[in-house]
Amino acid sequence: MSGWLPGEPERPRDEVDWDMYLGPAAWRPYTRKLMNAFHFEKGGGLVGGGCLEWGSHCVDLCQLANDADDTAPVEYEPVNGQLHARYANGVKLVMRNDGWLPLGSCPVRFEGETGWVETGDDAEFAASSQSLLLRRGTKIPGYPADFHVRDFLDCVKTRALTRANADAACWAHIACHAANIALYLDRKVKYDPKKNEFIGDEQANRRWSHPLYRFRLPDAVRDMSTLNSVRDHWLALGGPFSTWPFRDPSDFASVDLTENNVAPSLSSADQTLGTGDGVVTTFQLIRTYTATSSYARNITLPVAGSVLIEVNGVDPTTLSPAITWTVSRPGGVVTFSDPITAGHVVKGGYLFDNEVRYESDDAFDAIAQQAGIGGFADMTFIGVRRCP
Q1: Full-prediction pTM beyond 0.70?
Q2: Which of 182, 142, 145, 143 has its CA nearest to residue 49?
Q3: Which helix (H) or strand (E) holds 22?
Q4: Looking at domain 52-205, which CATH architecture does it have?
């Protein structure tokens, strides 16, 4: 996991739109250092070690060669500092850090019954036999990515999928995440690409740091007016492309509800957010759930005006000198005007929403069809995972 760098005051939105800059990456406080794409990739975005940082570039090419852009390997095993994976068709994928020829970044090597061919971003090739290079085409280096740009512009016109499309990228990243989990556990794992889960392996499946929330609204669409409103919402958001806030009627407060959809009384001591160290000024809102073990869920969409904060049992704004604070939405990060004294406990109480999206690309078609047949239709939303 990549950690958070200390937060800094955000720039005006017309200079830096921080939410747009983060895109699909896990939310974290603004810091100027992450405006450098190199630092963002290393410690602020979607990384999880070199296996993900560089792995997806190389694995993507291996997936293409194996005609596997819509799947991932089914087995992953650490072997002597490498990661060995196997596809359902028997093809073997090896991830390794060293032993590459000097042919540029993002190297790949293809081995078969007649020999091997290796290449990289410099567009140079090496092979076990010159006969394997006889049909080599034009030399096209990886940088600059002019051909990808041309392909993208052509697909804008034709509405076709790009060669490096989102689905292909998704499956390459899934393969790298699964490999990373095998490396983390230091043992073999088996993966089911259809169910998107590890087979009979609770420990591996628990590498999801946050469970998936699915919200189903039975008979939510009851008339044509509601269906028209859902259609407008669907089109305005681009289907499942965009997210929006949704209030879970059974869980939307820093304490347990006593009645569905009724806000409970809140206290500034409901949830423990952390302990000061004399340096840190930011604390993430969380909701802790406890059974046989505990689970802390990041709260990223606090309800405006509902947040109560205390430091060492008192309202920090009543201290002398006063410590003021703000809370972000999205984000759910409390930022204090001064560092919290070492050993002082920060707590809070609040209401919150969930970030959700439509379930799939054909969700509205299913809603409209169900409503057309029976007059009523269910709606299902998927909670968006935001990793720490």
Answers
A1: no
A2: 182
A3: helix 18-22
A4: 2-Layer Sandwich (3.30)
